[in-house]
Amino acid sequence: MASQTRSARLSKFLSLVVSGKRLVTTADSFVLLLESVQDQTDHAACVERIIASPPARNALHAGLRFNTKPDFLNKHTSTFIAYLMEPTVKALCNGQFLRELLELIVEPCTVWNALLQAFRSGQLTAPATHAFAWLLVELLTSSSTLEIDVTADAKQVFDNGSLLRAPSRETRELGEKLERILQVR
To answer: What confidence tens digit (pLDDT) does each residue in 138-169 have?
Structure first.
Protein backbone atom coordinates (compact mmCIF):
# COMPACT_ATOMS: atom_id res chain seq x y z
CA MET A 1 0.00 0.00 0.00
CA ALA A 2 1.21 3.51 -0.74
CA SER A 3 2.07 6.14 1.84
CA GLN A 4 -0.89 7.81 3.55
CA THR A 5 -0.55 10.94 1.43
CA ARG A 6 -0.30 8.96 -1.80
CA SER A 7 -3.18 6.72 -0.71
CA ALA A 8 -5.34 9.78 -0.09
CA ARG A 9 -4.53 11.11 -3.56
CA LEU A 10 -5.20 7.75 -5.17
CA SER A 11 -8.51 7.45 -3.32
CA LYS A 12 -9.51 10.92 -4.51
CA PHE A 13 -8.57 10.03 -8.09
CA LEU A 14 -10.66 6.86 -7.91
CA SER A 15 -13.61 8.83 -6.53
CA LEU A 16 -13.34 11.34 -9.36
CA VAL A 17 -13.31 8.56 -11.97
CA VAL A 18 -16.21 6.74 -10.30
CA SER A 19 -18.26 9.95 -10.20
CA GLY A 20 -17.46 10.70 -13.84
CA LYS A 21 -15.65 13.93 -12.97
CA ARG A 22 -12.30 12.63 -14.21
CA LEU A 23 -11.90 10.95 -17.57
CA VAL A 24 -9.22 8.37 -18.24
CA THR A 25 -7.96 9.21 -21.72
CA THR A 26 -4.29 8.22 -21.70
CA ALA A 27 -2.23 5.20 -20.73
CA ASP A 28 -0.70 7.23 -17.90
CA SER A 29 -4.07 8.16 -16.43
CA PHE A 30 -5.15 4.53 -16.79
CA VAL A 31 -2.08 3.36 -14.88
CA LEU A 32 -3.03 5.85 -12.17
CA LEU A 33 -6.56 4.40 -12.12
CA LEU A 34 -5.16 0.89 -11.71
CA GLU A 35 -2.90 2.09 -8.90
CA SER A 36 -5.88 3.71 -7.21
CA VAL A 37 -7.89 0.50 -7.48
CA GLN A 38 -5.04 -1.66 -6.21
CA ASP A 39 -4.49 0.69 -3.28
CA GLN A 40 -7.98 -0.14 -2.02
CA THR A 41 -7.63 -2.83 0.62
CA ASP A 42 -11.31 -3.79 0.55
CA HIS A 43 -11.43 -5.48 -2.84
CA ALA A 44 -15.16 -6.21 -2.70
CA ALA A 45 -16.12 -2.64 -1.84
CA CYS A 46 -13.89 -1.30 -4.59
CA VAL A 47 -15.38 -3.68 -7.16
CA GLU A 48 -18.90 -2.68 -6.08
CA ARG A 49 -18.01 0.98 -6.64
CA ILE A 50 -16.66 0.17 -10.11
CA ILE A 51 -19.67 -1.94 -11.09
CA ALA A 52 -22.07 0.76 -9.89
CA SER A 53 -20.28 3.39 -11.98
CA PRO A 54 -20.65 3.41 -15.77
CA PRO A 55 -17.80 5.97 -16.06
CA ALA A 56 -15.46 3.70 -14.06
CA ARG A 57 -16.41 0.62 -16.10
CA ASN A 58 -15.91 2.57 -19.32
CA ALA A 59 -12.54 3.85 -18.10
CA LEU A 60 -11.38 0.31 -17.33
CA HIS A 61 -12.70 -1.07 -20.60
CA ALA A 62 -11.00 1.59 -22.70
CA GLY A 63 -7.86 1.80 -20.58
CA LEU A 64 -7.10 -1.90 -20.83
CA ARG A 65 -6.89 -1.39 -24.59
CA PHE A 66 -4.58 1.66 -24.53
CA ASN A 67 -1.56 -0.62 -24.57
CA THR A 68 -1.54 -4.35 -25.22
CA LYS A 69 2.22 -4.87 -25.44
CA PRO A 70 3.68 -7.60 -23.22
CA ASP A 71 5.42 -5.12 -20.91
CA PHE A 72 2.12 -3.36 -20.17
CA LEU A 73 0.29 -6.67 -19.79
CA ASN A 74 2.91 -7.82 -17.28
CA LYS A 75 3.07 -4.62 -15.24
CA HIS A 76 -0.51 -3.41 -15.33
CA THR A 77 -3.16 -5.60 -16.91
CA SER A 78 -2.13 -8.72 -15.02
CA THR A 79 -1.98 -6.86 -11.71
CA PHE A 80 -5.59 -5.75 -12.21
CA ILE A 81 -6.57 -9.34 -12.97
CA ALA A 82 -4.69 -10.44 -9.84
CA TYR A 83 -6.63 -7.86 -7.81
CA LEU A 84 -9.85 -9.57 -8.91
CA MET A 85 -8.64 -12.95 -7.59
CA GLU A 86 -9.63 -12.00 -4.05
CA PRO A 87 -12.36 -14.50 -3.00
CA THR A 88 -14.59 -11.71 -1.65
CA VAL A 89 -14.87 -10.35 -5.20
CA LYS A 90 -16.23 -13.63 -6.56
CA ALA A 91 -18.68 -13.83 -3.65
CA LEU A 92 -20.40 -10.59 -4.67
CA CYS A 93 -23.83 -11.27 -6.21
CA ASN A 94 -22.99 -14.95 -6.77
CA GLY A 95 -20.06 -14.02 -8.99
CA GLN A 96 -22.02 -11.70 -11.27
CA PHE A 97 -19.80 -8.66 -10.58
CA LEU A 98 -16.67 -10.69 -11.28
CA ARG A 99 -18.18 -12.01 -14.53
CA GLU A 100 -19.00 -8.46 -15.62
CA LEU A 101 -15.43 -7.32 -15.01
CA LEU A 102 -13.94 -10.35 -16.75
CA GLU A 103 -16.15 -9.71 -19.76
CA LEU A 104 -15.01 -6.10 -19.70
CA ILE A 105 -11.42 -7.38 -19.96
CA VAL A 106 -11.90 -9.93 -22.74
CA GLU A 107 -14.58 -8.42 -24.96
CA PRO A 108 -13.92 -7.29 -27.54
CA CYS A 109 -11.03 -9.70 -27.74
CA THR A 110 -8.13 -7.23 -28.14
CA VAL A 111 -6.73 -7.76 -24.65
CA TRP A 112 -7.54 -11.48 -24.69
CA ASN A 113 -5.67 -11.99 -27.96
CA ALA A 114 -2.72 -9.98 -26.65
CA LEU A 115 -2.59 -12.10 -23.49
CA LEU A 116 -2.77 -15.31 -25.54
CA GLN A 117 -0.01 -14.13 -27.86
CA ALA A 118 2.22 -13.03 -24.98
CA PHE A 119 1.64 -16.38 -23.25
CA ARG A 120 2.39 -18.39 -26.40
CA SER A 121 5.57 -16.44 -27.05
CA GLY A 122 6.75 -16.81 -23.44
CA GLN A 123 6.63 -13.07 -22.79
CA LEU A 124 4.45 -13.15 -19.67
CA THR A 125 6.20 -12.97 -16.32
CA ALA A 126 5.44 -15.64 -13.71
CA PRO A 127 2.88 -13.42 -11.91
CA ALA A 128 1.26 -12.45 -15.23
CA THR A 129 1.12 -16.11 -16.27
CA HIS A 130 -0.61 -16.92 -12.98
CA ALA A 131 -3.15 -14.12 -13.54
CA PHE A 132 -3.71 -15.31 -17.12
CA ALA A 133 -4.23 -18.92 -15.99
CA TRP A 134 -6.69 -17.79 -13.32
CA LEU A 135 -8.56 -15.67 -15.89
CA LEU A 136 -8.74 -18.63 -18.25
CA VAL A 137 -10.13 -20.96 -15.56
CA GLU A 138 -12.68 -18.34 -14.47
CA LEU A 139 -13.84 -17.80 -18.05
CA LEU A 140 -14.20 -21.54 -18.61
CA THR A 141 -16.26 -22.02 -15.47
CA SER A 142 -18.36 -18.89 -15.95
CA SER A 143 -21.93 -18.96 -17.13
CA SER A 144 -21.22 -15.99 -19.39
CA THR A 145 -21.71 -16.26 -23.11
CA LEU A 146 -18.58 -14.83 -24.68
CA GLU A 147 -17.69 -13.98 -28.23
CA ILE A 148 -14.32 -15.68 -27.84
CA ASP A 149 -13.92 -19.45 -28.04
CA VAL A 150 -12.49 -19.94 -24.58
CA THR A 151 -12.51 -23.73 -24.80
CA ALA A 152 -10.41 -23.82 -27.98
CA ASP A 153 -8.00 -21.26 -26.52
CA ALA A 154 -7.81 -23.20 -23.25
CA LYS A 155 -6.92 -26.39 -25.12
CA GLN A 156 -4.08 -24.59 -26.90
CA VAL A 157 -2.84 -23.10 -23.64
CA PHE A 158 -2.98 -26.47 -21.89
CA ASP A 159 -1.31 -28.29 -24.80
CA ASN A 160 1.56 -25.81 -24.51
CA GLY A 161 2.36 -27.54 -21.20
CA SER A 162 4.02 -24.57 -19.54
CA LEU A 163 1.31 -24.14 -16.89
CA LEU A 164 2.05 -27.59 -15.50
CA ARG A 165 5.79 -26.78 -15.52
CA ALA A 166 5.43 -23.33 -13.95
CA PRO A 167 7.72 -22.53 -11.03
CA SER A 168 4.73 -21.40 -8.97
CA ARG A 169 2.75 -24.15 -7.25
CA GLU A 170 -0.39 -22.00 -7.52
CA THR A 171 0.05 -21.69 -11.29
CA ARG A 172 0.63 -25.43 -11.65
CA GLU A 173 -2.56 -26.03 -9.65
CA LEU A 174 -4.44 -23.78 -12.08
CA GLY A 175 -2.95 -25.82 -14.93
CA GLU A 176 -4.23 -29.00 -13.28
CA LYS A 177 -7.65 -27.43 -12.77
CA LEU A 178 -7.67 -26.41 -16.42
CA GLU A 179 -6.89 -30.00 -17.37
CA ARG A 180 -9.80 -31.32 -15.29
CA ILE A 181 -12.20 -28.78 -16.81
CA LEU A 182 -11.13 -29.67 -20.33
CA GLN A 183 -11.53 -33.40 -19.66
CA VAL A 184 -15.25 -32.96 -19.00
CA ARG A 185 -15.88 -30.73 -22.02
So the answer is: 999 987 788 889 999 999 999 999 999 999 99
Of 153, 133, 130, 144, which is closest to residue 102 (Cα–Cα)? 144
Count Cα atoms within 13 angstroms, Cβ side, for 139: 26
From the list 27, 6, 25, 8, the residue with the least C-alpha distance to 17 is: 25
End-to-end CA distance of the chain: 41
Under 8 Å between Cβ of 96 and 143: no
Other CB atoms closer than 10 Å to residue 19's CB: what's the count? 12
Q: Residue 1: what pLDDT?
A: 57
C-alpha distances in Å from residue 145, one per residue of 4, 66, 91, 140: 42, 25, 20, 10
Dihedral sign from CA coordinates of 53, 33, 127, 69: positive
What letter would DSSP give residue 123?
-
Position 48, amino acid: E
In our burial notation (b when 16+ CB lie closer than 10 A, e otherwise), range 153-181 reads: bbeebbeeebbeebeeeebbbbbebbeeb
Closest CA to 177 of 157, 167, 35: 157
What pTM was estimated for this model as a whole?
A: 0.95
Do the beta carbons of residue 99 and residue 55 sit within 8 Å? no
